Structure formats: C-alpha cells, structure tokens
Automatic annotation (TrEMBL):
Keyword Transmembrane found: yes
Species of origin: Terrimonas rubra
TM annotation in the entry: 12-31, 46-66, 73-92, 98-116
Name of the molecule in the record: DoxX-like family protein
Matches recorded under Pfam families: DoxX_3 (PF13781)
Keyword tags: Membrane, Transmembrane, Transmembrane helix
Domain of life where this protein originates: Bacteria
C-alpha cells in the first residue's frame, strides 16, 4: 500500500468514526447510552437536545476531516476533544461506557491513529503523488 493510499484510508476511517458516533449514536439515538452519559455529566433537563447538538458537531468534524481544510488545527482539535471527553467520562460516568474504564484505552488508540495520520503518514506523501 502506497503512503498516499494509506493516508487516504486512515483519513476516511477517522472521519467514519466521527460520522457513525455523531449520526447513528447521537442524532438518530440508536445508542441511548450516549444520552445517559450527557445527562450524567450535564444534567437530564437538556440532555436530549445537547446529545443531538454534540452529534451534529461530530458530523461536522467528519466533514471537516474529509475537506482537508486546516488539517493541523483539525488534528489538534480532534485529539483535544477525544482526550477531554474521555477523561470526563472516565471520572463521571464509567459505568455507562461500553467498556467501562477501559474505554480510555480505546480513546488513546484513536488519538494515536489521528496523530500518526497527520504527523507521520501525511509527511510520506510525495508532491507528485498528493492525496
């Protein structure tokens, strides 16, 4: 697999994670646990609306990733959001997470993939073979 193809596949995989979590889990409410987590952290009164807004933000993140606009900023924002979100969930709602406190390990793997894709995989693309 060429560096360009590898980078492109990782980019779409990362965008798919954001899209699936935003659209299916939150906006379409196919995973009610997400709203329960929001209710636990931010309160039950506005949890349904906030869950949908968070989901819409995740969909926008997927579109931002695909657009390749300001990729470095996008990478930093993704890493920051995933890290903060998972630390907060680890502390305030571990019983609602799919893998409990182990969720933070999956978040760390995702952060490493995002970091690698921008700061390493992208750097190995030649000018004659752009993404």
């Amino acid at each position: 697999m060429t560096p360009t193809v590898k980078h492109t596949h990782l980019t779409y995989l990362i965008a798919a994670v954001w899209l699936i979590n935003g659209l299916f889990c939150k906006v379409l409410h196919l995973v009610p646990r997400h709203e329960q987590i929001v209710a636990r952290i931010l309160g039950p009164e506005y949890a349904p609306l906030l869950t949908i807004l968070i989901g819409c933000s995740e969909i926008l993140m997927a579109l931002w990733i695909i657009s390749r606009y300001k990729q470095k900023l996008n990478t930093v924002v993704q890493i920051t959001v995933v890290a903060l979100m998972n630390i907060i969930e680890f502390v305030l709602a571990p019983d609602l997470l799919l893998w409990g406190r182990l969720n933070i390990l999956f978040a760390l793997v995702f952060i490493v993939v995002v970091y690698y894709n921008h700061f390493f995989a992208e750097k190995h693309i030649t000018p004659n073979n752009p993404v």
